[in-house]
Write a structure and sequence with these properties.
This protein has an eight-stranded antiparallel beta sheet. It starts with 9 loop residues before the first strand and ends with a strand. It has a single domain, classed as Alpha-Beta Plaits, CATH 3.30.70.3420. It has five helices and eight strands.
């Protein structure tokens, strides 16, 4: 089954002293930062019990593809690598919130900004399969962040990952971002 055909999955990312991912850096790109933590623990499923020492918990759910057309979906499915690859010992968790103006637009207008103007999918395709990712929707759950994107990559691909972020952050889409944190991790 492809990552685009799976049923919704509830996920919690917890900043704590426990977890398989050691935090190597965290900074607020826009808006308020998250409290510091040593590690990130990830729980999946309906019965998630976060570590007692969690300083923050970010929740999201995988969902249907929203801004992707059929050709783009096919390209993503052909090139996307899976999560959990042994060589992908680095990761990034990037929670993002967008403005009320973004959410007031109809979905076709958001799609126009997202892909036709900003080329979000096209930019991402340039970095596949080196960078694997999974998007989680927090807004659907009433969470603080609208989106939580989890990325995994090998150490030698981190410069390419940084280049991808630089390209994305330079687009018109990012004019609508009100809060963004960049959390870098390494598999412990």
């Amino acid at each position: 089954m492809t990552p685009y055909a799976t049923p919704p999955l509830l996920v919690a990312f917890c900043g704590s002293d426990h977890g398989p991912w050691r935090m190597t850096g965290m900074h607020a790109v826009r808006g308020e930062p998250l409290p510091p933590a040593e590690r990130v623990w990830i729980g999946e499923g309906r019965e998630i019990v976060a570590p007692a020492d969690s300083r923050w918990t970010l929740r999201g759910t995988t969902s249907h593809i929203r801004y992707t057309n059929g050709d783009e979906l096919g390209a993503l499915q052909r090139r996307q690598a899976g999560l959990g690859r042994p060589q992908a010992r680095r990761a990034a968790l990037i929670p993002i919130s967008k403005s009320a103006e973004w959410w007031a637009m109809p979905q076709d207008a958001r799609r126009q900004v997202f892909e036709e103007t900003s080329q979000h999918i096209a930019i991402g395709l340039d970095y596949l399969p080196a960078v694997a990712r999974r998007l989680h929707h927090g807004r659907d759950l009433g969470e603080t962040f609208d989106f939580l994107t989890w990325f995994e990559f090998a150490a030698e691909d981190e410069p390419a990952f940084d280049a991808m972020l630089e390209r994305l952050r330079a687009t018109r889409e990012w004019d609508y971002v009100t809060r963004e944190c960049d959390i870098r991790l390494e598999r412990a």
